[in-house]
Task: structure prediction
Amino acid sequence: MTLFSNYQWQKTYVLFRNEQQMKFLRILKKNFRHCAVVFKSQDFYLHIDPTFFRIETRIFPKNADLLSFLQKEGWSILETPYLPSTPSSLRLNWIDCVSLTKRLLGIKKWGIFTPYQLYKYLTR
Result:
């Protein structure tokens, strides 16, 4: 059981943007250097942004125009299906924005390491 196990997510969004603060991310495809997730329930939005130093989690009221705000902040937004996680074998990987987003969405596909690879997988 998790903190939000009783909530039915109405919509799930993956966010992509061009992270400019970390110079080493310049090797990644422009506009796909960072990713985050927004879950929408009937009561609220849950925004999870795994940054380099911490995981930022915010809850917004359901009447907030969150998606428009995020677009103005430079995020590209992709609506995607939510696949509840099921128990599986131990997966060792880095804790970065892509691996955390994959876990939050229930994606177990190996070989997705960059935000752009995640975008291509979600839009296939």
